[in-house]
Write a structure and sequence with these properties.
five-stranded mixed β-sheet, 431 residues, alpha+beta, Cytochrome p450
Length: 431
Amino acid sequence: MVGNALAMQQDLVAFLVKQYQQLGPIFRVRALNQEFVILAGPEANTFVTQMGADKFRSHEVWDSFGCEFGAKNSMLAIDGPPHLQMRKLLKPAYSVGNLLADIPLLVDIAQTVVKRFQVGEEVEALTLFRLIVTEQLGRALANHAPGTNLQNIITTIRVGLNVHMTKQMPTFMLKLPSYKRAKQHYLAMGKEIVAEHRATERDRKDLVDNILEASQKPEYHDILGSEEQIIFASLGPFVAGLDTVANECTFMLYELLNHPEVLAQCIEVADQLFSEGLPAQEQIRTRDVLHDAMMETLRLHSIAPVVTRTAAKDFAFAGHSVKEGQNVMLANTVSHFLPKFYPDPYTFDIGRYSEERKEHKQRGAYNPFGIGTHLCLGAGAAEAQIVLVIATLLHLARVEQVSPLSKLRVKNDPTPTFGTAFRVRFSEHRH
């Protein structure tokens, strides 16, 4: 009855790597009352990328999450042409160019948060980065700061995803007063954002302006035809970095603090970026030691280590048949831990991305943002934001891990995270 549930819960990717090495690129696992067909390794990554556009759908996985907020047919839950149409609408706002269009604003937000903490003060690293990342995305994409609603956003999204998507929480969690209050405040913030944008004419349109404009067009009626759908889409920026960029910044800081020689190089680069005021877009996007450390962090601690889908049709892969309607898990990051791609794969090694090695450029070897038609829309922006946030922190302050000898365990809640276990102490304000 239990099947592989315990092993998958302890370390899902490590479990899938072991099965891939023993069984090959397609196999079946059972966990409690669910059965999954697993597609893993570089063979699966190449197959999904090149031939998988019509073979997988996300509706069964994501539809109930959108419906929780009255948003049937959210972009997460639709496939085919409607999904591509919605991606085309949202992509400009979630692009790296748009995010980095106002670097002074992004740096000012990070600096304001960092200055809250006195020398000697301790903070959960995830909290620190959520304060920075969520406000940066909210202000840049929706012209709205989360303010006192940050905890309401965290509670709403965490419970909603863990109940509807990962199934880690029972459905009665949705009836708890704490969740219902948080959800009410979260949606009220969405209504406020939409009302502000309807009442204001801006020269430079942001994500919410684009959504409101599209909602008036017949071709978007099924996706943005109701006020609930408009609000849900408009709240996207506050969810985008909450469990992704913020957690990746946490993982990157952890790796840097545990590799002092790399940390010293990153501090030097960060100071260079700010040596003549504020860094330019091109500098943030340039390959340097900060960029390579970010890439290696994403390899070891991917934002989307697996992707859960439903088979949209019968198809064959690696000599085996998959039937329509079967639960499928695309194990896109199994390749990250294969020695044939990455020698000593569990070691943090930023040299992997050098011009001489380029280990991540091998076919099917590097997929930290998911895979397939629902690939993370803001992948490029996420990479740039991680680099900018970490560079700003390293330039402004020196931090140290509160319990450097403690072994931190990564858990899924709902994405991979240290949670509140990783705490840092401000030991110096540098600039």
